[in-house]
Amino acid sequence: MHKPLTNSAECINMRQPRLNNSVLLRVKTSNKSQQHTKIKMKYFIIAILAIVALAHAEDEWKVKTAADIKVIRQECIKEFPLSEEDIQKMKNFEYPDEEPVRKYLLCTAKKLGIFCAHEGYHADRVAKQFKMDLDEAEVLAIAQGCADKNEQGSSADVWAYRGHKCLMASKVGEKVKAFIKKRMEEAQKQ
Fold it and tell me: How far, CA to CA in Å, does 159 sit from each of 48, 56, 57, 69, 152?
């Protein structure tokens, strides 16, 4: 006959199986392994957050000033020299579909931060950079119409040239041309 239980603690203790040392060791090892995994996960999450923060910091694009654009153009002309003939054509807003001109335009678009070889033109940045006295929403719509997804699989310079040609043929291009002409006239007067 069994001895009657006197308190609930004895009941609980009787229901739990007795654990031998090997089972306890496995539980302790398992707990250490779980703690190690938790620590790894914390570091992994911290690393992911750092990468996201870095990507966001790099995405802090700002509209370029006229001085910034001048420096960018000078850098790109050094990197991708153009013939005197091409330079004269570009001063008249003619952009021949030739590799040196395309490479120069790609360079300037990349350094302006409005084009990348993976995504093409960033229409939102184009709108901010070239809105001038136009409504930004209107410029954004034009830029979105000119920015394609490169379904043709063109090289980056051909892709950038295609978007540039479209933008320069638009209302935005007309404003840019008028602005540049005015600046050139002012420079000649000085």
Answer: 32, 26, 27, 21, 9
